[in-house]
Amino acid sequence: MRFPCIRVIALAGWMALTAAAGHSQAGAVVIPANPRSGAPAGSPVFDVAAIRQNNSDHTARSHIYSSPGDESFRAINVPMKMLLQFAFGLPETRIFGGPEWLSSIKFDVDAKADSTVDARMSTLSGDEAKLEKQKMVRTLLADRFKLIYHMETRELPIYSLVQAKGGSKLQPSKSNGTTVDSWNNKIDVRGADNTVALLAEELSKRLGRVVIDKTGIQGRYDILLSWTPDDGTVSPSNAGSGISASADIGPSIFTAIQEQLGLKLESQRGPVQVLVIDNIDMPTAN
User: I want to staple 38 with a disulfide (CB 3.0 to 4.6 A). Which of 121, 142, 264, 282 is the partner?
Assistant: First the structure.
């Protein structure tokens, strides 16, 4: 899998959490195992970390800089909600609970581990290194923000990815490797024996809902999806309808999936694993 040297995540604005009614708990509170780091014994941790509240213009963009294969982590003007998204690999719509400041107060974070962690990261695959970095950020949040959480399953809106009328337009791949690139208004997935399943994962990240692959399509394909970012006027209810409020300048992501791939998204409800915040405090001193 090919990864950019530095991955940047940017969000311009944040919405406050809305309470979700009705849920069933399916997990226990996670309590740090290591009193110093909040991580299981042997897990890598950041050796030093500076965390400061950012009081700059609230319209300034938020950024997270993190390369899967090194020992550093940097965030600028980032709300806690965004840090949680990174640490757990979940969209905002799957994070519940916690105080209002999770979305309103922003922080600068500069963390670095020692050289042994760097050496270890270099031996891992891109996916493995990314998972290790996420665990390190979770440990940091447990140490400095006293984060306690649990996972549970809730009935939430989801999308099912199915074949559109006329069948898929996917082209078989001649690539031996696997590439997943996602940037701006494009998703490029190539290779792998479960290419469509990988596409569903990337769509989940973009749409903020779980996307389940129900196409029944197996095999290796080259998939390039390109759309016009909506301006807030294209709603998820238009999924699969071919409706685009920006039809004069380009297709919405829902229309593009149908026109370019011969697939479509159907809005449904289903069980989704979510993160529930049980406790989180403002950070301790550096």
Answer: 142
Give this prediction's pTM: 0.68
Token pair belonging to 269: 């409800």
Asked if residues 133 and 79 have their Cβ atoms less than 8 Å apart, the reply is: no
Q: Which residue has the tokens 């014994």?
A: 41
Query: Do 139 and 45 have their domain in common?
Result: yes
- Which of the four pLDDT bands, split at 50, 70 and 90, describes residue 58? low
**For residues 23-42, average pLDDT:** 38
What is the C-alpha to C-alpha distance for residues 7 and 69, in angstroms, rounded to an integer? 11
The single-letter code of the amino acid at 4 is: P
Burial 99-135 (b: 16+ CB within 10 A, else e): eeebbeebbebbbbbeeebeeebeeeeeeebbebbbb
**Do 164 and 132 sit in the same domain of this protein?**
no
The tally of domains found in the chain comes to 2
Residue 259 — left, alpha, or beta (φ > 0 → left; ψ -120 to 50 → alpha)?
alpha
- Residue 198 host element (H or E): helix 195-207
